[in-house]
Amino acid sequence: MSKQTLRSQVRTSLKALTQQDIQAQSARITELLLAHPAYKQASRISIYISKPNAAEVSTLAIIHDILSKSGSSDSSSSSSTVNPLESTTTPPPAPPPPTTTTTKSCFIPRCVSKTRMEMVRLTSLEDLQSLPLNKMGIPEPLLSEPRENIFDNAVVARQDSAYGGGGGGGGGYCDLIVMPLLAFDADGWRLGHGGGYYDRFLVECNSVNARNGRGPPVTIALALKQQFVVGSVPRDEYDQKPDYILLDDGR
Fold first, then answer.
1. How far is residue 117's CA from residue 225's CA, in Å, rounded to a whole number?
2. What letter does residue 228 receive in the DSSP assignment?
3. How far is CA 134 from its chain centroid?
4. The pTM is what?
5. 61, CA 20 to 30 Å: which among 23, 28, 184, 246?
6. Strands, DSSP E only, in 123-175?
7. What is the rounded distance in angstroms from the CA atom of residue 65 to the CA atom of residue 59?
């Protein structure tokens, strides 16, 4: 089966999921991620912003936790505010209780071309709520907006949409990538949404980390149990297998 055919089948089957089921699974997966040693030890975290009302694991409570540990004065000022990015009919997962961990920085995707993305700094919940929606309906910073790049460790604006990503010249690095998926198999292989963004970003991240004397980042994919497929996910030589796939049952 081709990737395109499998993606179509999975997307069709996920339409049967209710937002209540998605939020329940998301809440449990959030608990598991926050308790994961890789998360507790990470300081510079790349994480996707979940699409409102989509059939995928919500990351809003995780982002809330990262920002609460950023050490900045404005990161937790909206801790009691319901995030408008989520459904107005289904309450979002409650913010998790604080845990003892390292200071963290939150970096989110920004597409710089049709094949590449960079990770730029998200500073607060107000910052998250002010992001415009891209053509896929996902909150994303504008290319022209100055943002700290996870690799360069500097605030930059991307006027050129053909820009290929951070160069790593500023000593930045990434030690944890929390990524989405569309489907996964019993061997732990992930099928993405079709852009290849995370596979390319991971190659770049490994290179930048190595230049800065660091090992590869830990990669964790978040999955609804309904995204599991029997058999093997089709893959190519450039596909990257995540270190972990978290489900609500803890597997």
1. 27
2. B
3. 16
4. 0.83
5. 184
6. 147-148, 155-156
7. 10
Q: Between the CA of residue 119 and those of 27, 48, 69, 102, 164, what are the distances in Å?
A: 25, 9, 19, 20, 12
Give me the residue label for tokens 């964790």.
220
Q: What 3-state DSSP class applies to 159? A: coil
In the chain, the largest separation of any two C-alpha atoms, in whole Å, equals 51
* Alpha-carbon span 70 to 105, nearest angstrom: 6
Q: Is 63 helix (H, G, I), strand (E, B) or coil?
A: helix
How far is residue 198 CA from its own chain's centroid? 10
Q: When comparing pLDDT for 33 and 168, which is higher?
A: 33
Model confidence pLDDT, tens digit, residues 138-158: 999 999 999 999 987 645 455
Strand positions, DSSP E, 91-175: 105-111, 117-122, 147-148, 155-156
Tokens of 148: 């700290």
